[in-house]
Amino acid sequence: MDLKVVLVLAFLSALAITSTNGSIPRCCIGTKMITRKLLLKVDRWEPQYSDGICDIDALVVHIKGRRKPVCVDIRMQALLRRIKRLQPQQSKRI
């Protein structure tokens, strides 16, 4: 085989591997308990359900000032909704 053909095939193979690697989702493999102070700093959250690729139900929580998200119990979602609903009301009182 010609060297150019081999190099093109190697390049295309490397491109295919790297492009499919980016689509693999990151799943929580365990959950942690977080304090009330951290709950107040939660910026956003996303539920993760076990009916898809991931193995456990969890809540992926993004906290202000932290790079990596934290995985918490899915039951914390109701509490986070209440906290976010009450935060604007508390800022009006001050």
TrEMBL record:
Residues in Chemokine interleukin-8-like domain copies: 26-86
| A Pfam family of this chain | IL8
What GO cellular component is one of the record's annotations?
extracellular space
The alphabetical list of record keywords is: Cytokine, Signal
**Signal peptide, first to last residue:** 1-22
Citing just one GO molecular function, the answer is:
chemokine activity
Q: Name one GO biological process term.
A: immune response
Its recorded name reads Chemokine interleukin-8-like domain-containing protein
Source species, please?
Answer: Xiphophorus couchianus
Provide the organism lineage as a comma list. Answer: Eukaryota, Metazoa, Chordata, Craniata, Vertebrata
